[in-house]
Amino acid sequence: MKKNLSKLFILLLALNIFLIGCTNEQDAVSSQPADEPTEQVDVINEDTNKNTSTATIPEAVNKPLKIAAIMQMSIGTFSSQYVAGVKEQVEKFGGEVQIYNSNNDLAQMATHLDTAVNQGVDGILIDHGRADALEAGVKKAIEAGIPVVVFDNDIDLPGVTKIDQDDYSLAWDSLKTLAQDIDGEGNIVYIWVGGFTPMERRNVIYEAFKTRYPAIQEIARFGTASANTALDTQTQMEAILKQYPKGEIDAVFAPWDEFAKGAVRAIEQAGRDEISVYGIDLSDEDLQIIQKENSAWKASAATDPAEVGKIQVRFLYQKIAGEPTPQIFSLDPYLVKQTDLPKQNISMDEIGDYIDGWGESNAATSAWMEQLEQQVKE
């Protein structure tokens, strides 16, 4: 029933956009380049992004391509599973990908971007980073005819597709669950760090959340991003627990799974079973923690990190093939609650058996992709 309603909503929204476009934009539909849509689209739903116009493999992708994946950092299991998804999809298409890890150094990230452009790669993937550090390099890539697709980045340039996890929905799903579980009142700890596009977006919703639930009070806030974020978070959370004895903290909001892991470990080692943790992002390691008996981690809003990587690669190959791609694309997030999962441990590959819709995305698919994958196999 939920899926049917969702599809009906999408159809009505699409019809509305179509009618507006027919009325106001008839003269604007001219022969623009494939990667420059006639109007910027704020949100593209996964089900509307299928291109099945031809089953012939375009010449531009019918050969081994060299792809550069430039990352702001590679911390934790989310990043490792994202990289695995990127590598898997590129290899299925017969290409090769070089991963550039910038260790949270934006200047180094910009240097990696310039290196990739100068090497004349066929396409560039960017993971996180900020426009003020990377926009010049991305413009250089576009001028060189190298397509670019960014993930969780604030770059806004014509022809550059940027994808995200719909951070606003992720944050709201997790926070709303927190509020409902503590009956709309209590004391919470907020673990957060600025300087990252998805974190900034999630914080927008957190600020709205405080207005929506005035009886929920933030009593402590901290957070750092480092090579050992989970361990640093655990140490900081241990200090908070000493400052606020049993009964003074009801929940923790951790909008990054590395934060959540550290908080859970500190809470469990202190025997503070009255505190619940609500997070964002998910990995195999996170699942093991959530499924542990009496775990403090009650829910996490997430997308499949490997699927994120695969979709980003598919958009890039569509660009290389000269096919139209959206300016903005948001993946549908899912709320994974502890109570929805079985007692036995499961992996990310099995979540779809318990969370309706998980792992079923057909985003950024073209008919020729299946043929290309089969050709590479042979």
TrEMBL record:
Residues 1-28 form the signal peptide. The keyword Signal applies. It comes from Bacillus solimangrovi. One of its GO terms (molecular function) is carbohydrate binding. Residues 76-323 form the Periplasmic binding protein domain. Belongs to the bacterial solute-binding protein 2 family. This is LacI family transcriptional regulator. InterPro entries: Bact_Solute-Bind_Prot2 (IPR050555), Peripla_BP_I (IPR028082), SBP_2_dom (IPR025997). Keywords: Signal. Its main location: other. It is found in: Cell envelope. GO terms for cellular component: outer membrane-bounded periplasmic space.
